[in-house]
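User: Can you write out an input/output pair for a complex, sequences first and structure second?

Assistant: Here is one pair. Inputs:
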Amino acid sequence: MAWDFSTEPEFQEQLDWVADFCQHEVEPLDLVFPGAAYSRDPKAKALADPLKQQVKDRGLWALFLDRDLGGPGFGQLKLALLNEILGRYRSAPVVFGTAAPDTGNMEMLAAYGSAEQKAKWLYPLMNQEIFSAYSMTEPQGGSDPNMFKTSAVRDGDQWVITGEKWFTSAGARADIIFVMCTNGMFVVPRETPGVEIMGYPPLHNHIRYNEVRVPLDNLLGPEDGAKVLAQRRLGGGRIHHAMRTVAQVKLAFDMMCERALSRESHGKVIGEHQMVAEAIADSYAEINMLRLLVLWTAWTIDNSSTQAARTQIAACKYTMAKVLREVSYRALHIMGSLGTTNLTPLQAMWASAPTMAIADGVDEVHKVTVARNVLKSYEPHPGLWPTEYIPAKRDEARKKYARLIESDPDLAAWADAAVRATARG
Ligand SMILES: Cc1cc2nc3c(=O)[nH]c(=O)nc-3n(C[C@H](O)[C@H](O)[C@H](O)COP(=O)(O)OP(=O)(O)OC[C@H]3O[C@@H](n4cnc5c(N)ncnc54)[C@H](O)[C@@H]3O)c2cc1C
């Protein structure tokens, strides 16, 4: 019997270690030195680097990369179980070498980079010696590649890139930026003359590329291959976000349940009030539906490919935003006035739900993808009636019994009466 919801004991040991390490090492660092894990400041690095070394020693660094791409090769299912822990802690992804946007960029480099490109960018990215950003979205066209204008023109031994990008996360602090052009994916060192980082927004940057010159070798993958590379990058990124969202909603749920047992109001523990009980029951079911969808998708990727799991990944994308919105709102609400402050993680979690519905492509686009792909396995019904129109099906089924019914009038009468009784019911 292949359907199995258990975790093998050796891997459970790793998960237990990760949970303990995150709780006792990563969270305290986050609380006392917020941002230290991301910082280039030598004092902050001296605090964070030993934790990263422990992760490396444990063979858990760069978890998302397959073995042939330089990672431990856990596969997506195990990664999902790990991310269900890491996603609870702000710095855990960076302490485990799995932080976006570097992860997606590394996946592209690992899959499409030449040996020289990997040596120059992939391994330094894996070791967090450098950081990267991904410049795809354009101000006039969102993330619709058919609307993009940024392009590269070949001039001797260089590419000259001209265009404008919007919402490049961490662009201002990246060492290299992966720039999606209409005719290819290019790696642009941020310090290259012509890269103009605008003042706003501060975290997700608006960048102008003013005739930026890069060597021919900075084209990643084939010329005109940008869409394929982008799909590879975004497909992986979306499912990883969904895995970490499972962690977030479980955290909200834990907080909701603890509160439900800890407060009394109007003569009862609040968990005994029916509407609070409903919030807990709905959240329990929704979290588990999301979790199983994500695990099933991860399993599908492991057993086929990211491409084959596209419909499921798209379903994870908008479902996670919805479950995050609903569960974080309920948890915040049950926390009362405290929930409206930034003294617990709930306010930030709830505020992140609309972001989840937009980042990596708006929900509508993913819903259309799911509907379009699902409809490919259906046909319109041939005649006037839907396939499941009962009178037509019954007429068809009677043909199977035609001889019997003709030969036995009592049985025919019994069948007619039984059908009339069903119709009345
Ligand atoms: C936190 C965050 C981080 C991001 N990081 C990056 C990054 O690192 N690099 C990068 O390149 N981009 C990044 N983005 C940008 C992201 O890819 C875009 O915001 C997203 O694809 C939507 O584009 P837009 O913001 O222009 O919205 P629009 O495309 O203008 O969409 C606005 C609204 O229009 C409607 N709409 C749009 N298209 C459709 C459709 N096809 N069907 C139905 N309705 C539709 C929806 O209601 C949608 O919400 C990030 C975004 C966020 C929020």
